[in-house]
Amino acid sequence: MTDTQGTLERARTLHSQGRVADAVPLYREVLARDPHNLEALQLLGVALARSGDVERAVVLLGEAARLQPQNAAVQANLAAALSGAGRLPEALAAYEQALRSEPRLPAALRGHAATLLQLGQVEAAISAFRKAVRALPQDDHACNGLGVALERSGQAAEARQLFLRATHLNAANAEAHHNLGLLEAAAGRSAEALASFTHALTLQPNNPILHVNQGTQLLSLRRAEEALASFERALALQPGDAATHYNRGLALFALRRFAESLASFDRALESAADSTAAQLWRGKSLLALGRPAEALTAFERARALAPQEFEVHMQCGGALTELLRHEEALDSFDRALALNPASAEAANNRGAVLVRLFRPAEALQAFDQALGRQPDHPEALLNKGNVLRGTGRLAEAETVLERARALRPMDATTRWSQALLKLSQGDFRAGLPLYEARLELPAGSRVRHPALPRWSGAEPLGGRTLLVYADQGLGDTLQFARYLPVLEGLGARVIFEVQPPLAQLLRSLPMKGTLLVRGEPQPPADLAIPLGSVPLALGTEWQTIPGGVPYLHAPPAAVAAWAGRLAALPGFKVGLNWHGNPEAEKYAALQARSFPLASAAPLAQLSGVTLVSLQKGTGAEQRATVGFHERIVQLTDPAYMGAAEMAEETAAILSGLDLVITADTALAHLAGALGVPVWVMLQQFPDWRWQNARPDSPWYPSMRLFRQPGAGDWDGLFVQVAAELAAMVRARA
Fold first, then answer.
1. Residues near 653 by Cβ (< 8 Å), separated by ≥ 6?
2. Quick one: pLDDT at residue 314?
3. What is the CATH code of the structural domain delimited by 465-544?
């Protein structure tokens, strides 16, 4: 054996052992001695191609092909190198030359078909792959290649069979498992796709794309924790990949880890600033974090990137709604519908904004459009039912809300809407059980003290300590506080936990038990119940509402002190309160309870009447904006709302007035509980506790109810109220 042959033999051995880098210098040594050594030219070309030096490989293999143009193996290797260099037409010609010399050469058959596919000649590639499969029926790579070509031509069913055949021929063919997984994922068969990706990962555990694909299927199967782990393994292998950071953000969002999802979408945008999807989900994360202004900025960037994309307009509309920019939100949903007229979601969202704009007739049309596109759309049914209830079409509302509940029997929002409808019609028996849904509403659970057993009304109370805790607003606490003596009458030792602003006032309640301010240490108790659930536990009907009004009293010393100041005011003294809880009003829509002070102008024109402002906090600024502000006496600091204010100031002033005129706020309940004459200004179809027609209230004997003559008509209402007040003043004269 010559030195050249020995060197070539050693190089071949190293090459076969996978030690290509060690073989390369030996091949070069052979060629230095024998520049036309065909085997050395070919093997060095193959080695360089595998190591990424495709341009040099092409030169060497081209020389080998020149020396032996009929050598099919050489031509096939040259074609592979040309393909790696992106010189696809030349690669195709080399494969064709190889096949002319050896029509059944596996590498040439597969490579020729693959190159046709790369050139976009899909039908020709399918024909070439079919020829390869016929010639090489046991070749898993040929089956896999044909599957890829068929999938690209839309023949998914046959492609799936080819991928399955490839994996059966060779269970270690990771590419075939991967392709099968991609096809299953595209068909929505997530479990099957996941199985394929997982199998491929056993063969290629360091393939980041496989980890990402595994994660996306886990995410679609709602296995977000496992999906997150897959994406993080992919990032450990490929740290800067924008798509993987994006997918990680999706998993974190699904896990409600919104701050972390925001950070992931930000990382994705660092290297893919033009990603519409990343901007959209960045905005969704900000919205979930309660940052709607920043969310809108992200959505607007997405809209600039993809102005014809439906979703960007939908998300802009959602953020604008959160920001109470309702006209702009309506425009966004209109744009979304122009892009996708079949979207029930966009029509429903449009309707919800129209409700906020107090355009109920148009809102109903939008909800009907949504239901025409998707008859079982639960949100559209719920929204429609609420508008029907808010406009007095109660029988229709009941039918629609029943349909909504049939779709989502456990949905708290639907049950809550049904409760309000039933209770507004006086049906306590059906309404009070549904009223329990308030404890599950998305705004946040009001269940407190979960460690204590819940009193349902069936368990005897004699000798037991019952913790009753306020679970709604101040007005609800004042309204239902009347039940505490009833519970004591059943033998309970009562602990009554209340909001701090009401503590001093509620100490006047005729009860023997303990008044506990929320936040103070809780004494031992046997049972617990939310205050709003006590009427249900006691089986309350309209006819059995506990009386005993007044059941609250202002401190006598404060009443006496304010009586002197009020006595100095001339005429019939009328307290005026026009604005309620600003957070509640913000989202109230058809149920908005506050009235604009300007609508009360007819009261200021009455002689013999002194108006006294009772307004505190938000809304007090309206006094300075009305033309009759000098007719409204301001006795207190409207910004003062301290812990003692409710008892020492507001309740004491109420006790010295001739009449209170108020919106449906906590002050209405306070006046009623004190037994003060009070007129409550109500929407046409108000909150459930005032029912839908009666002028009086079984809750408060000293109360009269005045309702808008038409939807939103506060001005017309105050014309009526002024006439009633004038008649009262004349009768007192």
1. 562, 566, 575, 612, 614, 635, 636
2. 97
3. 3.40.50
